[in-house]
Amino acid sequence: MTENPTGAGVPEPTGDPQAEPRFTDKRRIDPETGAVRGSAPAGTPGVDAGTADTGADGSDDPLAGLDFEPSAVDAELIQAQGLAAERLEDLQRLQAEYVNYRKRVDRDRSVARDQAVAGVLEALVPVLDDVDAARQHGELEGTPFAAVAEKLEVTLGRFGWERFGAVGEPFDPQVHEALMHQHSDEVTEPTVSMVMQPGHRVAGRIVRAARVAVSSPDA
Questions:
Q1: Which residues does residue 195 pair with via DSSP β-bridges, in sequence order?
Q2: Nearest partner of 124 among 204, 174, 116, judged by Cα
């Protein structure tokens, strides 16, 4: 029997590698290649390189790319921060959509209001023409109807109505309708010489053009 020079009770090496002690390297970064362990290498069959670090639910893993192995508390905190950032992005997108919706509703409401006022004014145009003609001929002065006519015009003015068209202003085919035309050496450009019927507009929208006579300079 051979004596054991290493001491009593200590077994001699058997040469079997499975019987020898093993050590597990849990470092996340491979010290030789510098790659992150646990991710599939590029070109691995059946693995998409763009989804190698993607979680089971299809979302990006917030723990992917870390150069250290986080503790359970740190991992939970990182995942919570990622979820919070995602929810914040969703909230900001919904807020932007709501702001655009409010602007669109306000714009449509304003357009509908102007159209309604213009429709009422179109029906009142003959009445307003009679009021203006009576005022020019002095038929309203000193009568009770003068106050009624003034209140009507003031009320319509609150909704953006205004009467336009005056003698001496330059002729503009956008707001004037020429019913008569004559030449004159007293003007240097086409000018309104007579207003037969004034024009009406609401908030810049022409309801009816002013019907006028136009004087042009001699050739």
A1: 212
A2: 116
Tokens 């336009």 identify what position? Answer: 164
Between 72-136 and 144-158, two packed helices, what is the crossing angle to 10 degrees?
150
Phi, psi of 162 (to 5 degrees): -150, 150
Over residues 16-50, the pLDDT tens digits come to: 555 555 555 555 556 666 555 554 444 444 444 44
pLDDT, one tens digit per residue, over 52-91 is: 444 444 446 655 656 666 677 777 887 888 888 889 999 9
For residue 162, the surrounding DSSP H or E stretch is: strand 161-164
Q: Which pLDDT belongs to residue 185?
A: 86
Neighbours of 159 (CB within 10 A): 15
CA-nearest of 164, 188, 179 to 214 is 179
Residue 197, pLDDT > 60, answer yes
Nearest in space to 202 (alpha carbons), one of 135, 105, 128, 103: 128
**pLDDT, position 75:** 73
Task: Give the torsion sign (CA, 39, 41, 47, 49).
Answer: positive
Kindly report the number of other CB atoms within 10 A of residue 91's CB atom: 10
Would you say 190 and 206 are in contact if contact means Cβ atoms under 8 Å apart? no
Q: Tell me which H or E stretch contains 76.
A: helix 72-136
